[in-house]
Each structure stands twice: as structure tokens, then as C-alpha cells.
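anyone seen this seq b4? input:
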Amino acid sequence: MTDRAKPTLKDLYASSHLSGANAAWIESWYEDWLLDEDSVPPSWAEVFAGLRDGAAPETGHLDVQEKFRQLGRLPAAADTQLADHKEASVVKLISAYRMRGHEKAKLSPLGDPHCPPVADFDLAFQDLDESDLDREFDSGSLVAPERMKLRDIIALCERVYCGSIGVEYLHISDTNKRAWLQQRLEGPQGVPEVDDEERERILGLLTAAEGLEKYLHTRYVGQKRFSLEGGDSLIPLLHEAVLHAGSQGVEEVVLGMAHRGRLNVLVNILGKSPAMLFEEFEGNRQNDDPLRSGDVKYHLGFASDIRTPGGPVHMAMAFNPSHLEIVDPVVLGSVKARQVRRKDEDHKKVMPVLIHGDAAFSGQGVVMELFQMSETRGFSVGGTLHVVVNNQVGFTTSEPEDMRSTLYCSTIAKMIHAPIFHVNGDDPEAVHHVMKIACDFRLRFKRDVVID
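predicted toks r here
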């Protein structure tokens, strides 16, 4: 009889109930024992009690796993709250630019700020600091990439809302109008782009406007002419407005304005003969009707046809009395009659343009009455393009704060939720750009719009 070979340590371990193959089963019983010591056979309870060897009670492995799973699902609270707060601060900063950027805009040709500094644009005011400038944030509803560095977000807002153009439009209750304006202002079309041909045309019109004023001042010293000097950009603005409207299907433009710059508009926009104007200055102009006593030259109206890319546009300037702004309802009545005659129910063919002075716009009650009736069924003409020639002087009042109780003369237009564009008259390219946006707004939404 031969001796049997002694089992090795490996053989003994493999045959033991503590072998690796039984690990999951033993761990399951151990978890049960931790919860209830009477839930396992007494022999196993003794084994597990021996493993504890007087140590503090343990927590089950499954509980530990579940705890870590929950921790993995939870954000790092402090860091996340700070990041969320910063994101919200950037959204508030963007809203501040949209709401109050016009207060920081460079609107005065004299270079003077038109209102005190606005704290809303300070990083510290919005709980941001310079260390955030190169961090990326959600750009919110900006017409821009979804994520941008704060530095780039600020640069975009400064360019759109704080340059030579300031815009007030968040008072408009219609979401579609606000969204359209945001797209035009902040999107690719929001950059004032003028090609060389347009730039030459603008320069030619500015030269003609200034040249006429200088000639009249030199030739007819001391005679009343109500110069356009300082507001010369009105000439390229009106010229481009007629061309742009004509290209959009407008067939008639009716213009109403007071005396300031009227002679310049008559010659350089409507094409009145300079010789005819000079005869009026010299008193040699023969009246067509001997029964009429005539009128001063800056009250006379005129009409002509202007060639545009969309065809000829008939442009008429209404005769004007000395009473400021009283011509406004006359112009709109004329426009209404022309629209009825043309069966222009959509208000696409005839467009009114009213040119105001800053003091008269905010001071004459007829302007408020005009706005109040502008969207009623019986009197609506599909919106008016209002242009305020703002020389910051009202009669003998030299300080704007002595003229009115509002920051701008154009604030009255907010009563009908009209968008208001403030633009520096010494930046003719910005004036040109604003005119296109304003004209498109009127033609699209059939509502009043103001350029100051």
C-alpha cells in the first residue's frame, strides 16, 4: 500500500470555503450579517465576529458604493454656484448694454458726454473682475457664437451699442420687433459697411450741402436762411432714404419740415434750381399768380421726381407756415389721401418723412397728438420716418436740461413703442447705416420710427 501524496497549501486553499470562487457568496452573507447578526448560521456568525476582533462597527460595502455613486452625481457645490453666478452676471451685463448703452454712446459732435457715467457697465458692479475677461461664458441671446470670452462679449456690445449709434428699443412690447432689431443691430448687418461708391456719393452730397450754405452766407450776408450747418448729414440721409425706399417699392415720399435746412433740402434733394432760389433772395422772382402776395422762401413747397433703383419716386415737400410742427398733420393727411387714391391699403407705396427740430419735437403738443392718432384705423398711414435735426439749442435756451425733463427730446416717441436711433451727425457713415435700418423697420412693420 503506497502512501498518498500530502496536499499542498494551494490545494488546501482551493478546497476551502474561503477560496476566491466563494468571495461573492461570502461577501453577500457578510453584508447580511452587518445588517442583522442573526440572519446567518451561527458558525458563520462566529467567523465574522472573529474578523471584527473588537474593532468599531463597519458600514456595508454596498452602502459605501451607493454613497460614492451619489457623490459622483452631485456637482461641486461651491464651484458650480460661483460659476452660475458669473454666468448670470454676464447676462445682466449684456442686458445693461442693450438697455443703457445709448447713455455711453458717442453721440455729440462736440465730444461732450450727454449723461453721467453709468455704473452698470463696471465689472465690479456686475460681480465680475479682470480675471474673468479671458474666461469663456455663454453669450445668451446675443447674435454671436454660443460661447465667447468675456473680453469679446464686451467688445461686441461696445461696438453695437456705445459707438456713434445709440439705440432705444427695449421699451417695445412686441417681441417680434425687438428680435428683428436685435438681429439687425448685433448680427453681420449691424456693422456699418459703406462701399467706395456709396462713400463717394455721401462725400459729394456733404460737399454740396456745405458749399450751398457757404455761398449763401457769403453772397447774401445778413439774410435769413436758417442754415443746415452742423446738420449737413441730413442731406445724404434723405438722399439714401429715397433711394432705399424706392428700391423697396415706394412710389411717393411726402416730406414735411420747418425752416432749418429747408433751402438746402430744396436744392440738393428735390432739385430746385439754385438760380430760382437766388432770385428769391434778391427779390427778383416773379409770382406766378399776381393775386397772391407770395411768401418767404423758407416756407415754399416743391415737388419733383427722383430716379431710384426701383423706378422713379415722386417726392413732394409740403408748404410750411412759421408755426413749428403744425405741418405734420398736413403731411400725414396728404399721405392718407394719396394712399386712398392709389388703393395702397398695405401702405407700401407712399411713405411720409417728417423732419423736426429737437426743441419743437418735445415742446409742441401737436407731435404728441400725432403719435396718439398714428395707429388708429381711421388715421394710420403705415408709419412715419421721423428725423430730428438736433442742434441742442431751442430758441434762446442753450442748455438741454432747461428745455425738457427727459434725457432726450425723442423720449415722447416711446408712447407708441417706436424704436429710437440716436446717431452722431459727424459720422455720416453711421447716419447712412441707421437710415437703412429705420427705413426697413418702417416698411416691414408699418410703424413710426425716430432718428435723432
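The first helix runs from residue 9 to 15. The mean pLDDT is 84. kinda curious what u guys think
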